[in-house]
Specification:
heterodimer, A: alpha/beta, Rossmann fold, FAD/NAD(P)-binding domain, 4 domains, 5-stranded parallel sheet, 18 helices, 34 strands, globular, B: 295 residues, Glutathione S-transferase Yfyf (Class Pi), Chain A, domain 2, 2 domains, 4-stranded parallel sheet
Chain lengths: 660, 295
């Protein structure tokens, strides 16, 4: 007979405020197999754990049930605690009487009844528990970082500095991301390119870092420690092993298209590096716009001028297959396409209504105007500039419900830069709230107001043109009066949204995303850089809007997670995986399409039937790939598959305990 | 084909006679059949919905029910933006809530199934087949006329009731006017309010609304404004001189109904197009433009 200990946690008043803990203990004491039942204020605390350990010794317990918060919160804590006792860590059941009981109910009597039921189920289940032992697998000590923005660069450098190999896959022709487009960074006003390009160069030169620019992740197989990734190298049409980056081809290329790096505010050639400080510092051909490749085939100037014959119009790209132990997703953000949703701001009809990132290029010394603020329509220096915040952010009717976090600060920075460069100019900032949670942020905002920026609290309802002026009509909600501001140029601080192809990538990686498409972290507070899939981590704005300091911090955090994974010779795997009873398996293969991790295959084995040796097909679970979801166990017609720790027997015991 | 039940509305016999005459002319030219709803009544305009929900729904509903009783199964063409709005509200209410529809039937003592759609003349003329028919009938050109197409509030709002037309930068009227050879200008006050009936009861508050419409039209180079609503047209046309006097502005922008320009280009005389029925002189601008185009 099992000797079960039941421990009910008050969780302060979180549980005890609604559930009568004493009643639960009293009831639990009478369940079959229970040798001891007690309660404690905080079981997860050190003294709480000591209480459990002492009870195990004193009452000679061989398995325990803890009624507390969700197992997602503290199951691991209690398993670790059990490791220093005589009980196997998997001889534990957690009854979730907080999230699934006290937090969602107000009726004390009924909540207590439910807590008793939940505990009864856990007790019934633990009766059938068996000791489980983790397995171990080898780890490929090479990391893949998807996205070469500042988050990816930081993560890659930290991993490389720790002595591990790391690849950066970047879809553009250069790493650098958004940060390298920016002019200055708040609140210190240091030059964004000056602090990010050295990191780019370092990443390009680091012996442990392999840059894979102009590449995209095509498919991912495998599991933590042993991923196999297909990377598509897009056709560059330039052999980067031969090319020295002399730039002759770029100068001679006769076809010009709008520069995405400069936000469409000037042109670039079709043979191009995205920007002068690009890493790798070698050009690619934008095939779509190339006359030789996609046009009438009559150009080819670049090949003619290349002294090293590095241009290859026949380049088709290639698929590179690599093995990695861990993956960091750092795909960053894009800005919302405001033109479609804000026709009242001209919907893109007014050249002088620009976005914040366009302003960054305008005010940047390497930008289209060499840092002189000139408006796009006529190249004149604008004197009166209006800045509109929360365009797409915090707007449930038209845009996104969330706050994009960085805009309040960079709009203050924009105002500061305008007033510095145009001393006789004026800046009017329409805002809803000014949010400045960061070191030195509020001080910077104060300084901007002292500089003379005019903050107007209210949204702009319409922008229209009169002569050369853009009239911003809105409301000053502090005065309760309509206002209209005549501006020469308007800057829209638009919402951050996830990269367009992020859903494709989350699909390839089998990781979650939230309703807005941001990559979902495993726990919002305690596992902020992990995903739900083991071995895949995240960093930067792919997880949600954030500023540069937070992005860099996440990059380093994700790197530490990877390094700790790589620091082990062998990696422990969860024993909660499926197991096939070969005697029962009929080889019907129903389980194979059910498995989201492609962990099940069919193997041929020798069996003895009526004294004869026969060959049989049976399912086989790869213990490295299996994530313990249980889908196969549900699908198995002959009941041959059991999920360890959640066996059919255990589940039935739970159901019986509740229903009989 | 081009066949509609027709609800002219009260204004068309009074302040919007220019609209009525030009609609008749154009409809005949392009072979559009307009079957006037027999024994129609006022749509209730602003008065009814300030009195209460059921009066505001029932008055238009009677007209819609009468059209249904004709048994022609036609959509209902409504020239006036206000009538259009009231009728759209009724159709929307009857389709959305069966109980409301039954209650409406009870009040008007007639069956009303809300099967037909209500269309503004703007929506009708923007249909490809009507555009094509108009294009074929163009005899003269208004090239050199720069037209600010003024849609007003009610053709586009509220969006969930009126449907398609954009509330910020609609283009339907611009496309129709382009048929006449005139140049529809890009401007920003297409759907701003003209003050509606407040031009009568609170002119001090409402006059600036008209002034800014003229100002933006002029700033963007308009030599004419075109409307699709009796009241928008009346307000702008009637107040232009007053504003010029009071504010010292020199707006010289005649205000037409869009159907007037279509009629003129289809060969209508000044009388047929109602060009002498304006407060602000409207005949000369058209005459000069036609002459310049060599027609």
């Amino acid at each position: 007979m099992a000797r079960i200990g039941v421990f009910i946690c008050h969780c302060g008043t979180n549980i005890a405020g609604v559930v009568d803990v004493d009643e639960v203990v009293k009831a639990a004491g009478k369940f079959p197999g229970v040798a001891y039942a007690t309660e404690y204020k905080y079981l997860c605390s050190e003294p709480g754990q000591q209480t459990i350990k002492a009870a195990i010794e004193e009452h000679n317990l061989d398995r325990i049930v803890i009624g507390s918060c969700s197992p997602r919160m503290h199951e691991v804590t209690f398993r670790k605690m059990l490791m220093s006792t005589k009980i196997n860590p998997y001889m534990l059941e957690v009854a979730n009487i907080r999230e699934q009981c006290s937090w969602v109910h107000t009726d004390k009597e009924k909540a207590t009844e439910k807590a008793i039921d939940l505990t009864r189920m856990a007790v019934a289940k633990v009766c059938k528990s068996k000791p489980l032992f983790p397995d171990s697998i080898g780890v490929t000590k090479r990391a893949l970082v998807i996205g070469g923005g500042i988050a990816g660069i930081q993560a890659a450098l930290d991993i490389a500095d720790a002595g591990y190999a790391v690849d950066i896959v970047e879809k553009e022709a250069s790493i650098g991301g958004h940060m390298v487009m920016l002019d200055k960074t708040f609140p210190t006003l240091d030059c964004s390119a000056c602090i990010s390009t050295p990191k780019m160069v370092e990443a390009g030169a680091h012996p442990n870092v392999t840059l894979r620019a102009y590449c995209e992740v095509e498919s991912v197989k495998g599991y933590v420690g042993n991923f196999e990734v297909d990377i598509r190298q897009k056709a560059k049409y330039v052999d980067h092993d031969t090319c020295t980056g002399c730039g002759a081809c770029e100068v001679k290329c006769p076809i010009k298209v709008s520069s995405a790096f400069n936000q469409g505010m000037c042109d670039r050639t079709v043979m191009y590096k995205p920007f002068p400080q690009a890493v790798p510092s070698k050009p690619v051909i934008d095939a779509l716009n190339c006359r030789k490749i996609s046009g009438d085939g009559k150009c080819g100037v670049c090949a003619a001028v290349c002294p090293l014959k590095a241009v290859n119009f026949e380049d088709k790209g290639e698929i590179i297959t690599e093995k990695y132990g861990a993956i960091i997703v750092a795909t960053g953000y894009e800005l919302i396409k405001w033109q479609d949703i804000y026709p009242e701001y001209g919907g893109g009809r007014f050249e002088d209504v620009i976005t914040g990132i366009q302003f960054e290029r305008l005010v940047n010394a390497s930008g289209p105007t060499e840092g002189h603020i000139r408006r796009p329509s006529d190249g004149a220096e604008p004197k009166d500039i209006a800045i509109i915040k929360c365009v797409g952010s915090r707007d449930i009717n038209k845009g996104k419900a969330y706050c994009s976090r960085a805009c309040c600060m960079y709009s203050a920075k924009h105002a500061h830069q305008i007033l510095e460069k145009i001393p006789d100019g004026s800046v009017h900032i329409f805002y809803m709230d000014v949010r400045t949670p960061g070191k030195g942020y509020e001080e910077f905002y104060d300084r901007t107001r002292e500089d003379g920026a005019n903050y107007i609290r209210g949204r702009v309802s319409k922008i229209f043109k009169e002569g050369n002026k853009l009239i911003c009509k809105g409301e000053d909600t502090l005065l309760g009066k309509p206002v209209s501001v005549e501006a020469d140029m308007v800057i829209l601080e638009t919402a951050m949204v996830p990269a367009t192809d992020i859903s494709k990538l989350t699909g390839i990686l089998s990781i979650g995303s939230d309703t807005d498409g941001w990559v979902q972290e495993a726990h919002p507070k305690l596992r902020p850089v992990e995903t739900q899939t083991a071995g895949i981590f995240l960093a930067g704005t792919c997880q949600g809007p954030k500023d540069i300091p937070d992005t860099v911090a996440q990059g380093s955090a994700a790197a530490v997670k990877v390094c700790s994974l790589f620091s082990k010779v062998q990696m422990e795997t969860s024993p909660i995986i499926s197991a096939v009873d070969r005697e029962k398996c009929s080889g019907c293969e129903m389980c194979i399409p059910c498995c989201p991790y492609k962990a099940i295959t069919v193997i041929e084995i020798d069996m003895h039937e009526h004294g004869k040796k026969v060959k049989m097909n049976v399912s086989d679970v790869n213990s490295g790939l299996c994530q313990g979801c249980g889908a196969c166990a549900g699908a198995c017609r002959s009941g041959a598959i059991d999920l360890k720790g959640y066996t059919n027997d255990q589940i039935l015991m739970e159901v019986d305990a509740l229903c009989l | 084909m081009m066949k509609y039940s027709y609800f002219p509305g009260c204004s068309l016999d009074a302040t919007a006679v220019t609209y009525k005459r030009s609609i008749s002319f154009v409809a005949e030219k392009i072979g559009m059949e307009l079957n006037e709803i027999p024994d129609w009544n006022c749509c209730g305009a602003t008065c009814a919905h300030s009195r209460g929900k059921w009066l505001a729904l029932a008055l238009p509903a009677r007209n819609l029910a009468l059209a249904e009783r004709e048994g022609l199964g036609l959509d209902i063409a409504v020239p006036c933006a206000s009538c259009y709005s009231r009728m759209k509200h009724t159709v929307h209410a009857a389709r959305k809530d069966e109980a409301d529809r039954k209650k409406i039937e009870e009040i008007i003592e007639m069956p009303y199934l809300a099967k037909s759609d209500v269309l503004s003349f703007l929506e009708i003329f923007a249909l490809p087949e009507v555009m094509k028919a108009c294009k074929e009938k163009m005899e003269r050109s208004l090239a050199s006329l720069n037209v600010a197409c003024y849609y007003g509030c009610l053709t586009a709002r509220p969006r969930e009731i009126t449907g398609g037309i954009s509330t910020e930068n609609p283009m339907e009227m611009d496309d129709i006017i382009a048929l006449t050879g005139a140049k529809p200008i890009e401007w920003d006050f297409k759907t701003e309010c003209c003050g509606a009936s407040h031009q009568v009861d609170a002119p001090e508050a409402a006059l600036p609304l008209i002034e800014r419409i003229f100002r933006n039209a002029k700033a963007n180079g308009a030599t004419a404004i075109v409307t699709a609503c009796p009241l928008c047209n009346l307000n702008l046309d009637m107040r232009e001189e007053e504003i010029n006097k009071k504010s010292g502005t020199a707006f010289d922008i005649p205000v037409y109904q869009f159907t007037q320009l279509l009629a003129v280009c289809m060969g209508a005389t000044a009388n047929e197009a109602g060009l002498h029925k304006h407060f602000y002189p409207a005949y000369d601008r058209i005459n000069d433009t036609l002459r310049r185009a060599g027609a």
